[in-house]
Sequence to fold (121 residues):
Amino acid sequence: MKFLRNNILVISFLSFCLSTNAQETISNLKKTKNGVVIVEVNSDFNSKNSVSFLSQLKDCKAYRIDISNAKTLEVKTIPTLIIFDSGQEKGRFEANIMMECEATFDKVQNTINEIILNKFQ
Fold:
């Protein structure tokens, strides 16, 4: 019983730390003043539908956040990709009814490229 109680305490503490760190990460993403940031919001139960190309995107910083830690992002479906520039949301790609992201690498990368090019106009 003591073993079980200790494991529950450790799990609770880790969950709190992860939740706190994720909320801090979201706050920092919204405060980012330089560069493009893309966030994938998903959940463990839907990990098979994670966006496989996230790390291949150029000219941006990419993060993955669990839906339970992304309440302030107002996500309705998972996975959802959200693109920020200077702390402002500039694009969002949401999943279909099958919980699959229909956005392609090219479509997301083109959105990032447009955001960057618009800074020079």
